[in-house]
Amino acid sequence: MKDSLGVAELVRAHFFFAANVSSFLFSSEKEAPTMAGGTTAAPQTKQEDLVPHPVKDQLLGVSYCITSPPPWPEAILLGFQHYLVMLGTTVLIPTYLVPQMGGGKEEKALIIQTLQFVAGLNTLAQTLFGTRLPTIIGGSYTYVPATLSIVLAGRYSNILDPHEKFRRTMRGVQGSMIVASTLQIIIGFSGLWRNIISFLSPLAAVPLVALAGFGLYELGFPLLAKCVEIGLPQLVLMIIFSQYLPQILKGGSHVLDRFSVLFTVVIVWIYAHILTIGGAYKNAPLSTQMSCRTDRAGIISGSPWIRIPYPFQWGAPTFDAGESFAMMATSFVALVESTGLYIVVSRYSSATPVPHSVLSRGVGWQGIALLLSGIFGTGNGSSVSVENAGLLGFTKVGSRRVVQISAGFMIFFSVLGKFGAVFASIPPSIVAALYCVLFAYVGVGGIGLLQFCHMNSFRTMFILAISFFMGLSVPQYFNQYLSVKGYGPVHTGARWFNDMVNVPFSSEAFVGGVVAMILDTTLPPKEASTRKDRGMHWWDRFRSYKTDARSEEFYSLPLYLNKYFPSV
Prior knowledge:
- With 568 residues, the chain is mainly alpha-helical.
- The protein is 65% helix and 1% strand.
- The protein has 25 helices and two strands.
- Strands 1-2 form a two-stranded antiparallel sheet.
- The longest helix has 30 residues, at 72-101.
- The radius of gyration is 28 Å and the shape is globular.
- The protein starts with a helix and ends in a 13-residue tail after the last helix.
């Protein structure tokens, strides 16, 4: 009897202790204890707060995705904003190349018109029949070294007439681009690229995409600083309009953040014009005037009122085997960079990861874009526009219709030369300020792919460390060597062979992406957990066109063409 009473007392004591402990814990959650000095202890973290953010194969928060167009007035303004952004590259590349080809203001204006016209055609083709992503296919900085190599070739040095030299050089560039386009056409439409990128994991795609944006840092602040009194206000106003003012006003409208590029470019452009007509740069050095003044581009005076670019407008193309091989190597570099840009565009348009067959189809149409560039004589190859890819994320509008409207603006203003030239006369420092934000958006889109990877794996960290460092360090060596010596590290008697080696190793995205892909596919251990660490299990269902129902919504061809050209 005494033993039973003792047990009962022990049970009562146990429940009493448990009740007091639970009430203490409950009260500590309700009211944090006050510590000495009057400070309040930090509340205990709930278990659900420690759960990481969920992985999303589609980016959330996009206002208009690839298949949901904005209302027509808004779509037209957004399309014009894309047109304004693509003008930067369209103007800067001919401004650099045409004088070295022997051309003047008239030739530069005609090249800019042709670039716009062909960019409009290629953008429509890519959005209708290629990947169907909202990508703008325009001029590319990747092709500049190969084009410049042709311009400086010895066979043109004896031509004294600058206009004749320009036409002869342009025809040589045309011939090399026409030949180089066959590489992308064959790799794309044959399905070979589909098989190659089947080895690409989210882990290997991180440096490829990130360096496609961050690797263009030399075109950002260094170019902005050439006229800091114009470029810096553009950058600051762009950040204020897009990030701060919408939060301060809180009107529920997205006008300021969605059209911040349009508003700020107009404001700073007017400010730059006031400085120009006020004589602020009257006695400034020529380089400062070219970067700051709004009347130094010479595009308006050199542009005809109405002119439609036509094939072989500079004459019949000429072909050189060495130059064609060099341009083919460059087109392969552009192909690799564009693959990364297609991936980030699919994220910013809130589409699913691009099926491999659709990517291969897009590469084929990109080859056709390069072919059209050679036929019309743009003086520069075509590729996916990096800045416009960043604009999709910056505005949170990934609508395909908006980009197609932008293509309409390109064609329209390329025909009406004088009107298009007005917009093309934006000072380069304003363009550089846009690059500081838009290139960075592409880069951070690549960083976002890390959500699919295991970041506590030393294998993952090694691949990322080596690929990022080499992707920045190797091109820096090649570019610095070129700036000091006047030629690349590979310097033989065959200029075409030099370009075939120097151009690929001068591309940050190409070097970083290739290093990451090689390491990711060859490094041991080969286990099931390694595949998961690489993020492949997230992309498996998007490898084929038919394994995810959403692929039909985002990537199917129009006019029932999928019936005759099925994707696999």
